[in-house]
Fold these 2 entries.
Entry 1:
Amino acid sequence: EAVNHRTIISFFVPSLPNLKLIISPKQELQPSSENMPMLTSPTPEVTVIGVTNLPMETKKRMSSTNCGLVSSCDESSTCCNSSLSSSSDSSTGATSKNRRRRRAPRKKKPRSANRSTRSQSSKESESEVSLEQQAQYIAMDCEMVGLGERGYRSSVARVTLVGWNGETLFDEYIRQDAQVTDYRTFVSGITESELESADWTLEECREHVLELLEGKVLVGHALKNDFKALGISHPWHMTRDTAKYEPFQQVRFDDGVLWPRKLKDLVKQKLQRDIQVPGQPHSSYEDAVAAMDLYKRARNKWEKAMDYKIKKTQEIERRNQVRQ
């Protein structure tokens, strides 16, 4: 096929499918077979104009074997621009050209160590809590006894408040005004003798607890039960309830609704320790410390979520004020 006074020769080679060579018309061909014509001998008059449809791996393999037929080509170009010659100079020049075009592997910068060091230091800085901040947190837990028929009505019998490091701030039994019909000892650990020697009334306990919680962040598990038993409340943005914290909850049914988990299950999974062991009475001190430790573990993410909720609530309140 003549194109611009040159001849396009197409022949089949198993390792080089669809190879096309454009040579000068003066070059004579002597086919070695009907399907594979070959050049008699490469001369300086023969010039490779184009090589098409060659896989990249094949081109690299040919260039690495110092073959004089093909020079290095990139994926976007089909022009080789290399001369066929029997002299060793031309093949050496093509090989050096191939070597120049090859990209050297990029050297990875030693940044992994720095990143790990930075991440570790950031975690340490986030986990550090100053003494002033520690004083802002109080954990509370209450134990109940049963009043009335069959002991169905719950009444607070022991109230425990602990600080950041588990130090006891308040731990007293509450004197009952009505007859106790169920001490729930197997759960609460409270006995009749302990309540008979109690000095604090419910009203005195309530006032003292409110004084301790003034301006503090209250931590606990299922605090709504303790609030109801004590007859108190606490601002939502100052409350950290491990029963309501979504990452601590689980889906029970197929509806996707999150439900609170038992405190002992959370402590076992998150803290790898056992509380509320079957056969042993519960301890309000142990439960309060466990709730505080759970909060410490999730404090960074928990506080970020609380900051977002507080900001959104403030924005809504400002909008409502503007509308009014």
Note: Confidence is low (pLDDT under 50) at residues 1-6, 26-49, 65-88, 112-126.
Entry 2:
Amino acid sequence: EAEVEAERRKAKNYTTLVAHVSGLRKAGDRGAAALGVVTKLLRYNCDAYSMWNYRREILGTLGLEVAAELELTAVCLKKNPKSYPTWAHRRWVVETAADRRGLAASELELCAQFLAVDERNFHCWNYRRDMSAWAGETDADAEAFARGKLDANFSNYSAFHEVTTRMPATLDATRARTDLDLVAQAIFTEPDDQSAWWFAEAVLGKTDDADVHAHHAATLRQLRDLEPQAKWPALALLRHLHRRPALAQADEVIALHARLAAVDPAHAGMYGPPPAAAS
């Protein structure tokens, strides 16, 4: 009962504080005292997005103190590393700062620290992408950072996406094979993890090398045979053969339709009838 009562008092105090800050905002208060109250509230609940908006209104009057804002957002992100409005405010601080380039460069280290704790925090990945652009980080360095995260954990949509955004418009056979070798390591380790499958689609869409596509089809067939109950190897192979029908073996497409309907009956209609049945 004591814990319940404490939570009630806490909720009541917070409600009172929100009402007080809302009143200050309605009254047009843009003073230092109001900023202090907003700081107190955000330390309590960093997801109160309207309070961050009010804070920026106050800072527009008082002037931006970069160090203070970075300190506040750092405290909030330690409490909740996935707070949308906190990351948005920190981004605004960097964007508004006089030395945006230098500050953005230093923020890359902060991102490294956060992603060392949770390498799949997409809020931080999105933030890092902006810092990278503003700091003038090269595509090669940004890609190397993302690949380092993939070396630690293949199951990372954000890292795969980052590598994809740094790719050239077209890939030669050597680069495509290197990326597909990475995919192979991931899918043979965990064939049901979708992140590597989507990366493979991006790689294949950037090369027309026939040997690369044939080699990938062979890889998919090997995994299909090793994991007969897994959906993704069969689905990836089916998609690949629809794009490259010359690679299909006799009755292979029909067999893949049947296999997918069997291993994933809840979505059988999504795969459609096999070509022979459709005709």
Note: The first helix runs from residue 2 to 26.
